[in-house]
Design a protein that fits this description.
Layout (H helix, E strand, L loop, with lengths): L11 E2 L5 E2 L26 H6 L1 H5 L5 H11 L3 H17 L9 H14 L11 H14 L4 H4 L2 E8 L2 E8 H18 L15 H11 L9 H18 L7 E3 L4 E3 H22 L9 H24 L15 E10 L4 E6 L6 E14 H8 L11 E4 L1 H13 L4
Parallel strand pairs: 7-9
Antiparallel strand pairs: 1-2, 3-4, 5-6, 7-8, 9-10
Helix pairs in contact: 6-10, 6-11, 8-9, 8-10, 8-11, 11-12, 12-13, 12-14
């Protein structure tokens, strides 16, 4: 019988394993990963495989290895490179920039949170904020418009000489109108007039007619960029101007407004015409935020005594029933605006310089805030305003017509 296997001194130790005895490889060695042969390099992906990955590459859904292989291939294969560009453009259409009106509170919440943590070094003045917001909302509405939407008919409406007036234009024509009237503020700030050095003297209507009549072709989507750039420039300029700029006078032709009120008036016009555009293309559009709407209503209420006096001078309103000295209490109408942005305003009836007085209140009007804005924009006639009325009927009629007379093209 054979005895126990003798030990050998010529064995060797494998790294990380037991002593191995020299000799021929056995079948068990083939299962040991330490003896596994080095993997052979994989052949490069074929043209067909790489072309099939273009869709995933455009969506950024490829692995790092696949992305490198596809991009290396695109440098060598012109047809695939053209296809890749088309797919990337298509992906851009699948992920459009979100419009601000879809989430109206999101932008303000994010800005409020950010500014609360780190206030802006150059903040937008409070009185310019409604204009900044309304132009941004309108720009968000316009961003996805194709050529056909830019040529959609829009009917501008306003109230003049006891009747409602209308003018038919297009979406592009409305933006041109806003741009040319915003140019009045640009002129007051010493900025370039969008109508150039040959801009006509006069108010909004004359400027708008000049723009519409001197264009070689009807306004197109190209009007959006200069309108938007001008709005940004206006906000940036007043943000850097410092205190006192809000008192600058802006000449509207037949009247003038201080710059702070002019920005509010332009915010109101921007919202009203954005509403016109949205209605023309059958798209929902929300009213301004409560604080901004309140500022717009407040401006209209402050302008009512002057508008009433102008109508009285033209023989369109009842004569004053009692002249009082400037600053003295006079006959008053109380205007109550309900809903978001609402509040109460006392309107002097007999003289813009008179002081409203609760003791001399002769009439009251109650209106929804949006309806009052529609009246002031000339979108509804005074007779159509569903107003709660109490007191002097003549005074109520005069104030409702004065509110409608604030509108213009």
């Amino acid at each position: 019988m054979n005895g126990p296997a003798e030990s050998h001194d010529d064995g060797y130790e494998l790294p990380g394993g037991p002593m191995r005895i020299p000799g021929p490889r056995g079948a068990a060695d083939d299962l040991d990963p330490r003896y596994a042969p080095a993997p052979l390099p994989l052949p490069p992906p074929s043209h067909a495989v790489l072309k099939s990955l273009l869709g995933a590459w455009a969506l950024a859904a490829c692995s790092a290895e696949e992305t490198k292989a596809v991009e290396d291939h695109l440098t060598e294969c012109a047809p695939c490179a053209e296809e890749a560009l088309r797919l990337r453009d298509a992906v851009g259409l699948l992920h459009p920039e979100e419009t601000l009106d879809l989430k109206p509170l999101l932008r303000s919440r994010v800005l409020e949170d950010c500014l609360g943590k780190r206030p802006a070094r150059i903040p937008v003045p409070v009185w310019a904020s409604p204009y900044d917001t309304e132009t941004a909302r309108l720009d968000a509405l316009l961003q996805d418009f194709g050529d056909s939407e830019w040529h959609t008919p829009v009917r501008l409406k306003w109230f003049e000489e006891e009747r409602r007036r209308t003018h038919r234009t297009t979406v592009a024509g409305v933006i041109g109108h806003l741009m040319t009237v915003d140019g009045l503020i640009a002129g007051a700030l010493g900025l370039d007039d969008p109508l150039g050095p040959d801009a006509p003297t006069g108010g909004p209507a004359a400027r708008t007619e000049h723009f519409w009549n001197t264009s070689a072709y009807p306004a197109t989507r190209r009007v959006r960029e200069p309108w938007r750039d001008q709005g940004h420039t206006l906000v940036r300029t007043v943000s850097f101007a410092g205190r006192g700029v809000a008192e600058l006078s802006v000449d509207y032709g037949g009247f003038a407004l201080q710059l702070g009120d002019a920005f509010l008036e332009r915010a109101f016009e921007c919202w009203v015409h954005a509403w016109d555009i949205a209605e023309a293309v059958d798209y929902p559009y929300e009213p301004p935020s409560g604080p901004h709407l309140h500022g717009m209503i407040d401006l209209a209420a402050r302008l009512l005594p002057g508008a009433l006096a102008a109508r009285r001078r033209s023989g369109l309103a009842a004569p004053a029933q009692g002249l009082v000295a400037a600053g003295a209490p006079g006959r008053t109408l109380h205007l109550e605006i309900e809903g978001a942005g609402g509040g109460g305003w006392d309107i002097a009836l007999d003289s813009p310089a008179a002081k409203p007085s609760q003791e001399r209140t002769v009439a009251e009007i109650a209106l929804d805030g949006i309806e009052f804005c529609q009246l002031a924009a000339g979108h509804i006639a005074p007779e159509e305003a569903a107003a709660g009325q109490h007191g002097d009927r003549e005074a109520i009629r005069d104030v409702l017509f004065a509110a409608a007379s604030l509108s213009r093209m």
